[in-house]
Design a protein that fits this description.
By secondary structure, this protein is of the alpha/beta class. The protein is built from 14 helices and 14 strands. A 7-stranded mixed β-sheet has the order 3-2-4-5-7-6-12, sandwiched between helices. The radius of gyration is 21 Å and the shape is globular. The termini are far apart.
Length: about 375
């Protein structure tokens, strides 16, 4: 085992895949220069082992023009003719420029060719939310792609998952989109330096608990764990479950974790309407309704564009305070620091969107949810 950062684990997985299969190539903007630190030899330096360009040559590490539609289209074509490309698309917000290629080519080609063609390509992109990158660079668009049949959606929250899931993605004969929360890039943990793969559709029980269950996605997972740590000091035991892949989704794992406690909070950094949290909440309500002891609550980003202002942006995303508040609400208790204020703690700095049935109805009636 070796302590790796999230980015380091991605770089290790890419190197493993390239050494294992000559058909694996990496293309994208500035991948030759290792700008984002995932195509280097030792960190970002061209150290003794050399970076990927020196190790594998320009036939397998190739810069592209700044044209996402061209990049995605070329990768789909390359995949259909025998290569297994890994595409670095940098910002997830840039995926919008290539929607035709994603939706009408990558996702549909296996079906349109009657199964005679496969599209084994991996698209990596980073969600730069929370860093004052403005409305054009702060998107978390994975729910849009969950709605497109034919695409697999991966959202790793830990370095070990990033490495194992990327290795599985490269082996997939279907297009895989990996969404990396850049707020996690610097996180570290012990990772197996040997080759391993994590199957899609198998979630991770990050923490066990008995009083409530938090099902968290991507960057919300560490916040859910932090909330669980806080609540443990209050005598509240919280289960935290990370689906890890949204397509395919570990439905059985989610339902088991939900039914275990009967009180469910879903934390999702994406926008609220038709998001991953909405789908997970619907599944829980459909299949284990009889086990629920309180309404399912969602902590999401409100349906608004992301402001540049750090002070404004910080309040929008699910955080440990909002998640803990939602768990307490499910249990019918209030935070110790709010007890003296008769429970009126306010929402300033609590982040996310604390969903109570009454608040939902009021927002929908006034349109303030938009």
């Amino acid at each position: 085992m070796t302590v790796m950062s999230y980015l380091g684990a991605i770089g290790a997985a890419q190197k493993e895949a390239m050494l294992a299969d000559d058909r694996v190539v990496i293309i994208g903007e500035d991948v030759e220069a290792n700008v984002y630190g995932t195509t280097g030899g030792a960190g970002k330096s061209r150290a003794s082992e050399g970076d990927f360009l020196q190790q594998f040559g320009r036939n397998r590490i190739r810069n592209t023009p700044i044209s996402e539609e061209v990049i995605v289209g070329a990768a789909v074509g390359a995949a259909m003719t025998g290569l297994r490309p890994i595409v670095d698309l940098s910002y997830s917000s840039f995926l919008y420029m290539a929607m035709d290629q994603f939706v009408n080519q990558a996702a549909k080609n296996r079906y349109m060719f009657g199964g005679q063609a496969s599209v084994p390509v991996v698209f990596r992109s980073a969600m730069f939310y929370g860093l004052s990158t403005g409305a054009h660079h702060s998107d978390r668009p994975y729910p849009m792609f969950m709605n497109v049949p034919g695409l697999k959606i991966v959202t790793p929250a830990y370095p070990s998952d990033a490495k194992g899931l990327l290795r599985t993605a490269v082996d997939s004969d279907d297009p895989v989109l990996i969404f990396e929360a850049c707020v996690l890039w610097g996180s570290k943990e012990e990772v197996d330096e040997n080759e391993y793969k994590i199957p899609f559709g198998v979630g991770r029980s990050v923490r066990t608990g008995t009083d409530a269950t938090v099902i968290a996605v991507s960057g919300a997972v560490p916040e859910a764990v932090a909330a669980a740590d806080t609540l443990a000091k209050e005598g509240i035991s919280v289960e935290v479950f990370d689906p890890r892949t949204l397509v395919p989704l570990d439905v059985e794992g989610i339902l088991t974790a939900a039914a275990k406690t009967g009180r469910v909070v879903v934390a999702d950094p994406a926008h609220r309407t038709c998001g991953a949290a909405a789908e997970i909440s619907a599944l829980v309500s459909e299949h284990v309704f009889d086990s629920l002891r309180a309404p399912v609550r969602r902590i999401t980003t409100p349906d608004i564009q992301i402001p540049f202002s750090p002070a404004l942006e910080k309040q929008l995303y699910p955080n440990r305070i909002a998640i803990a508040d939602a768990v307490r609400a499910s249990l019918g208790v209030i935070a110790p620091d709010a007890a003296g204020a008769n429970g009126a703690a306010g929402n300033g700095g609590r982040g996310g969107s604390v969903a109570t049935p009454g608040a939902d109805r009021e927002e929908l009636a006034t349109g303030s949810a938009r």
